[in-house]
Protein 1
Amino acid sequence: MQLFPDYTYCIDTSALIELKMKYPRATFTTLWENIEKLIEQGRIIAPRAVFDELGQYEDKNDVLFKWAKRYKKMFKDRDAAQLEEVHKILSDYPGLVDVDRQTEDADPFIIALAKTEGCSVITQESQVKVNRIPYVCKKYKIKCIPLVEFFAEQKWKF
């Protein structure tokens, strides 16, 4: 099956958790296989911070965390360009992260990776709330879509 179109996507933790919760692999096998093909093609990526969040939120024996470990190549390490973008993003939108949080928030890294790689963002965060990924993406003119819109873009039918 040819996957269409040839965009690259940066996926958020919320979208991965939504995949696990609403589209279990046992029922949506083809969906997961399509996603894995895109990962293998380098067309679905995420910052390493998303992997770290999955490790924080999900049980280490959880099916999603185990899956993420198998597809660890999708999680990109930081580079100087991303760190520069994260600094700009947090300067412009300090409310994007919870300063009281004990661990690092992946949100600015998702936006920075999408910006430096020229890709769209997939997230399940609210499309209308201020200081959320979709709001900040809109301000930076980065395309940001929920999972269902991503499926439609790929022309996947189940």
Protein 2
Amino acid sequence: MPTGRRYPDEIRRRAVDEVIERGRKPSEVARDLGMTATTLSTWVRQVQRDRGLLPGPTSEQLARIKELKREVAELRRTNEILKAATGFFAKEADRTRTR
């Protein structure tokens, strides 16, 4: 998991294991660790997706989707620049032909 998150990876793993492996309630584990049950439940659901226990995109798939969205945005910006350049050069070519 990327760094810079509020909770270290080890805390995340321990919290999720408490819920999945030991069957504790997310609200109990969250209270013990000083986090919200919503946060912990989100982590648990994602780990369950990653393990194939729940339907939905895995963490790897979500990362790939994010990467592809970034790439699409960059390609769209590039296309806009190329369209603008094409228009500019087409006008310049017309101007030089009419002289």
